Amino acid sequence: MSEDKDITIAQRVLRTEIEALEVLGNQLDERFSAAVKTCFAARGRVICAGIGKSGHVARKIAATLASTGTPAQFVHPTEASHGDLGMITSDDVVLALSRSGETPELSDLLHYAGRFSIPLVGMTARADSALGKAADHLLLVPDVAEACAVTRAPTTSTTLMMALGDALAVALLDRRGFKADDFSTYHPGGKLGAMLRKVSDIMRSGSETPLVAAGTGFDVAIDVLSQKGFGCVGVVDPAGQLLGILTDGDIRRIVRQRKSFDTIDQAMTRDPVTVTPDTLAHSAVSLMSARSIMQLFVVSDGRCDGILHMHDVLKAGVV
Asked: How many helices (H) and strands (E) does the chain have?
């Protein structure tokens, strides 16, 4: 059946590319480390360039580098020959991609890098090519068969270049000590950006926070709980330190047990679960899910800064 043949072809393609990636991983050596060191030391940007499918990969590598803390930009080699070479400075590093290493459109870019002593990292399958010889640092990809053996269309080779670009970006990320907080600065949109937002970006604070002072009458505290609409009320001392919490669930239990209290202190749960403003929002969600609660008070050194409610988290797109 044609469906079976389709799956067989797909599996063959994937096996071919997986085997090529294993070869690439096994052949990495000090040349990769040298390239990472050069890119890390650059005072400017990593200029990524390539033609055709290699150009698409170069664009992706530039985007990955930029979002992980390494300033980077894609420059089209043809446009570079018509004035865009002026975008490249002696503070930059050029990362040029070409499987054959003989892409004629790269010629002017290679000469420019050599003329102005701009470090050149070459990503190619042929060390003896024009790109391989011109490169200060050679990132050699295995010269293996393309997955599309009939046409030799770039398949395996572009996968290898893409993976090597990812390896370069992650190695640089590690050298820079780049953290999730840093990534959220460069990637504020979309699901990833939402997942990396801090509690301080979403929480309610100031007069919106449902708080009462220690010693407040129980009935008054219930009124505050109802008015604020968070399903809870926090109890603080004169210094703003969070002492305890009373929730809707606590009130239902109190009613069922027919208990009565004069002050909120007698009814509150002491030492409630809290988070800090710097806690990642998705970590706060995990905590709320694990504890089966809908809200968390936000504290710094014990002092209440605000409140985080699951509804606000949902609106922010974190979940």
From this structure: 15, 13
